[in-house]
Amino acid sequence: MAMKMVTAIIRPEKFEAVKRALEEQGIYGMTVSEVRGRGEQKGIALKYRGRAIPVDLIPKLRLDLAVRSGDADLVIRTIKRAAWTGKFGDGRIFVMPVESVTKVRTDDAKPPER
Amino acid sequence: MAMKMVTAIIRPEKFEAVKRALEEQGIYGMTVSEVRGRGEQKGIALKYRGRAIPVDLIPKLRLDLAVRSGDADLVIRTIKRAAWTGKFGDGRIFVMPVESVTKVRTDDAKPPER
Amino acid sequence: MAMKMVTAIIRPEKFEAVKRALEEQGIYGMTVSEVRGRGEQKGIALKYRGRAIPVDLIPKLRLDLAVRSGDADLVIRTIKRAAWTGKFGDGRIFVMPVESVTKVRTDDAKPPER
Amino acid sequence: MAIDTGDTAFILICAALVMLMTPGVGLFYGGLVRRKNFISMLALAFIAFAVVSLQWVLFGYSLAFAPDIGGFIGNLDYALLRGVSLEGEGIPDMLFMIFQLVFAGLTLAIVTSGVAERVKVSSFIVFGLLWTTLVYDPLAHWAWGEGWMAQLGALDFAGGTVVHISSGFAALALALVIGRRVGFGAYGIEPHNIPMTLLGGALLWFGWFGFNAGSALAADGLAVNAFVVTNISAAAGTLTWLAASWIRGRPGSIGMISGGIAGLVAITPAAGFVDPISAIAIGAIGGLVCYGALLLRVRKGLDESLDAWAVHGMGGLWGAVGTGIFAVAAIGGIDGLIYGNASQFAIQIVAALAALAYAFTVTLILAKAVDMTLGLRVSEEEEYVGLDIAQHGESAQG
Amino acid sequence: MAIDTGDTAFILICAALVMLMTPGVGLFYGGLVRRKNFISMLALAFIAFAVVSLQWVLFGYSLAFAPDIGGFIGNLDYALLRGVSLEGEGIPDMLFMIFQLVFAGLTLAIVTSGVAERVKVSSFIVFGLLWTTLVYDPLAHWAWGEGWMAQLGALDFAGGTVVHISSGFAALALALVIGRRVGFGAYGIEPHNIPMTLLGGALLWFGWFGFNAGSALAADGLAVNAFVVTNISAAAGTLTWLAASWIRGRPGSIGMISGGIAGLVAITPAAGFVDPISAIAIGAIGGLVCYGALLLRVRKGLDESLDAWAVHGMGGLWGAVGTGIFAVAAIGGIDGLIYGNASQFAIQIVAALAALAYAFTVTLILAKAVDMTLGLRVSEEEEYVGLDIAQHGESAQG
Amino acid sequence: MAIDTGDTAFILICAALVMLMTPGVGLFYGGLVRRKNFISMLALAFIAFAVVSLQWVLFGYSLAFAPDIGGFIGNLDYALLRGVSLEGEGIPDMLFMIFQLVFAGLTLAIVTSGVAERVKVSSFIVFGLLWTTLVYDPLAHWAWGEGWMAQLGALDFAGGTVVHISSGFAALALALVIGRRVGFGAYGIEPHNIPMTLLGGALLWFGWFGFNAGSALAADGLAVNAFVVTNISAAAGTLTWLAASWIRGRPGSIGMISGGIAGLVAITPAAGFVDPISAIAIGAIGGLVCYGALLLRVRKGLDESLDAWAVHGMGGLWGAVGTGIFAVAAIGGIDGLIYGNASQFAIQIVAALAALAYAFTVTLILAKAVDMTLGLRVSEEEEYVGLDIAQHGESAQG
Ligand SMILES: Nc1ncnc2c1ncn2[C@@H]1O[C@H](COP(=O)(O)OP(=O)(O)O)[C@@H](O)[C@H]1O
Ligand SMILES: Nc1ncnc2c1ncn2[C@@H]1O[C@H](COP(=O)(O)OP(=O)(O)O)[C@@H](O)[C@H]1O
Ligand SMILES: Nc1ncnc2c1ncn2[C@@H]1O[C@H](COP(=O)(O)OP(=O)(O)O)[C@@H](O)[C@H]1O
Question: What is its main location (chains D, E, F) (predicted)?
């Protein structure tokens, strides 16, 4: 079964909404990490005494979801809808190829033979 | 030399065992990060006053190992064996293609030309 | 537009230099995470009472940059130059294929239709 | 009467304990906000304390405790601490001054709840100076100086009205003026570091012994009573809030510690007037009242972000009323409602409501004034980036 | 004799210091567990303190300190603090009550070591109430009330037996009943936040001055002696454990601080009876004894997870014995073995072993009883998820 | 005169407060280094305290406070605390001993700034023992024992010279001997946990009340004065450093708290000699002096990593001078420059410079000696890995 890795960088405050939206689509498995990031626009430029100071790194959540290739578009659309606020910093979604996915726990609950 | 990126999500308590097992196979290089995750089963459902409350995010370690393509299977098997407990949450191993790996430190200990 | 994911593991102290060097090349977007890692050499062996104790995991920063395919080499070279110290632990740069990049915020500032 | 070394030793240490409550508030609040505003909450607490420390020495103490002008405010006789002596009765006058100073600093730190994650530091400093001068100092004068509340016979042992009603309702007014955080209601804005909140809460509980027992201004039986009822009320509040939140779901630690703080707030005005068994009631009800207030605030969509209103404002209000109910002459010389003294009960309500109205109204005006001149709030970009970077150029992580 | 303001000031502040030790234990333990149980350890400490605070006021203090029934327990004369006066000799009786309260709360917090990362909060509350009532209160009565140990002449200055032997061996009994954590032995279960453990240790060391010196119940030479030997013993324990662990590998900071705690525990019963030079010996040996006990526990595969047994239980045992060895009449009026008084040595051993046996046995029974009725342990799913989420619905990170 | 319970209560608690400053320094420094050296900074503070605790009891106290030998050092009459009594005038002699002990421990902890992130623990222990014996003990004798400074009439109320000049300039000397951290100047070496630094700073501010007010050795008006001016100076330093850094950019919280520490350091020698209004000047100037020193250090490329020199050394120097300027007879019996007593001003400068020269020179020699024999610095590999793993085998994260 062909899989894709969908990696979404979202704002932390939108995590619950994104998660719920994905659940509604039947997507459960995911790995989440705390990251910091900035977008193409050089981050945000804060005005400070006239000068503009670029601000680089803003806390974000990174979601990695391994999904069936056929689901990738649905997942992207779902995240996009749920993570959207229309303000700077809404995030990015990357799709990367996955060659294999292995579950550590064998389903018959016996240790893998050596 | 063709390389693969093996990304394993394991339980933190199994890290030492996995690392040792990999060392025995001659695999040393790795990058580790603290993540949280849930599996396909919607995480674990805790029973709470009759209702089942899904629990989403459980602390995990993420291991990223860039390995020679030929070693990928060995690495997967090794991790699988060492990370296994047979209980929920044993983890997942993903393999993704890598196009190039560059070492920052040049071997002759001179700075890279500008 | 074809994209690549450039993932660099660098020493935290070199982050500012790397970022500045990338900015000079017009590269702004990136996602940063705190990781720990060791290189192929089994990490560093500390001498301790005659015995050599391998030290595994040293704090690093991981930079993920989605860049145009044509820019990948420039980005790698730029990081390499800026992150270099010539000492152990200077880091690694991986390049991986990216199939698509989606911006969450639609440019016309309207929410994506459902 | 000369200085008593035991009393002096006690109040000196109590002053130190109360000082520690200010960074305690910073930690408590800092754990509750998003990571990008952690330093901001800590820095606001320190800045509040430093600014008030100087204001108090220059003229604040005088406004509160110098001879009365019209029942409303003190004159400037003690400005620059002129005439504040190192001698005194029981404890040096100067020790009373510094003991009161640490209260004033703490109170402004509590107020930061209402502007968390969105206030401009510079405007907060200006607002803080005005607020301490125009709200805190008069209230302290009313209750503890020669002001009208004291003349009326209103009881406020350690600051239920002066410190908690005032800061809680000021935070509410501030929150109304500054407006909700971006995304409030739409996003989930979650506490980023609950253990720090618990540590802050521990420092508060610890320091509160100095706050309440020290308000006896002597190391005597009254101080012991205040100490004992403080702990009892805190324990009772901890357990009732915990229980109430348990009924609605799981017993969270934020509710637990908030209940403890609620119990501490509620007993504050009463600590020198009620006995240990009444303290159980005051604390237990305090936990429930404040939890209810929090639920109400959330339902109303009010972004008084860190619940100074629910816990300090409403807890202080309950405490003032509770003092009027449970006071017993055997402890503090005055009976309350359940011992047949309904007039004390009425006085308590009048004083509490007056303080509430005054603090809320004047804060509203001050906040509006600062907002219209300097701007109270950072830009939306800065709020998104977080105050740590935007206001302080620093980052709590990395 | 009337109340002395100096003594009263001292014991008031000491009570506050000891109170701070309870969240100190929570931080100490919280840093040692996995991240997913950090809040749980802190919350257990607060809950222990709150529950015991009310129990003590309602009837616990009376069981421990009211007039004796058969050398075993106090009667209910002081229930609801009836007759506990704000007057007293040197310090008010009510101050003695609250000073004892903070000890009782702390003791239950120490016990949580034995059930770390796997206990149900609700069952812990029930267990804690029973334990304080049936184990702690009798032991306090035996040693400090009018119980048989006091009649026998056993020495326990500040709680080596009542607090540390009891909590340490109770933790052991609990650990045996509740069973090992899933994966113990097979997995590596590592401390997730050592700096928090060190901060908790710092608060413990700080609070211990109140614990030991305050046990003089006066600000006198005896208190000074207790303060001095406490610090010396802590320093000696710090250095011997550090050195011993250094010989076996690298000098870790957990060993360092555990050595400090071991030294503090060991000197606790002795603090009013030994001189500074003996304190070096007591602390130094204390560090080694507890380190040895820890190694033994690990070798035996016992999951008394955070080593309350090794440090408090065994350290307390050594301290009781050490008091019998090093006591000197010049300090506390009684000589020990090295000054020729072998009978005191024997008494110390008898009392310590009796306390040990009582605490261990009754805890075993109570733990079994709670386990069979309510279930002491969370489900395996909950343990995997972590108690922060499973029991409290919260998360320490993020 | 017999023991006064109030004075004794006060100094006992002050000693506990000062003890807490040592882990406070550990947290303060630990937040400023990179994550991989967090445990190391905390452990160095604890180890410094433990080692000095024993040294002090064995012979350090005697060197500092036993009868004088040539104005330079005390003899060994009080070694092993022989003859240090539990009786005394006002407070027991033994209490004076332990109050001085916690100062000595803290001072060595401050010194660790100069070797942060690169020192070998074993060598630090040896160095620390030598340093306390050969630098701290003589200085304490000079200023507070019967040494030449005391004979000269130099004023150092609470340790501006003995504690802060000595530790600050020792840190500078150490930094020169051990050399810069790898990458200093080339890399960005950023604080990894500013909230911990702020918490450490809060504990320092809190403990400093014990440090300065306790140095009155009595709970009297002088103690109150010291307490009050301490807080004022800290607040003033906080605000001037904040303002100065604001002018140059954004008002960072590290600058804010450093300003507070600078104010605390500057008032330390003066606390028993100046009045509240002078304290504003001392603190305000202190904040600016230390901020300037820090900028100078950075410009010179000096890696005295955590700025003990800039804050403690230069702040202490300014404080010693400031005492000579602002001292007023009404407080401490002696006038300074602005009250027409230029000779006191001169004495202050002589004493401060002598202490500075002595501490710097002897530290340089000791550091060189330890470096040439044992090696002061870890290998480059260990420095890269971080001292937490390399020296302690532990990790602050995970
Ligand atoms: N080219 C990129 N490579 C990697 N990560 C990126 C890139 N561009 C954006 N990101 C990530 O997405 C986040 C949000 O980006 P974006 O929405 O573009 O921010 P903004 O609206 O502020 O420009 C960034 O904080 C960063 O983590
Ligand atoms: N589809 C997925 N995409 C990304 N990560 C996943 C996915 N499925 C599982 N994971 C990761 O693997 C971890 C373990 O998954 P798994 O063993 O399936 O857990 P469980 O047994 O509880 O279902 C999860 O916590 C998550 O981090
Ligand atoms: N094969 C690999 N797979 C994944 N990460 C690696 C690999 N090799 C190195 N790294 C990452 O790069 C970092 C630096 O590696 P390197 O410079 O080789 O370290 P060193 O010089 O100590 O060998 C490591 O800490 C690790 O995070």
Answer: membrane
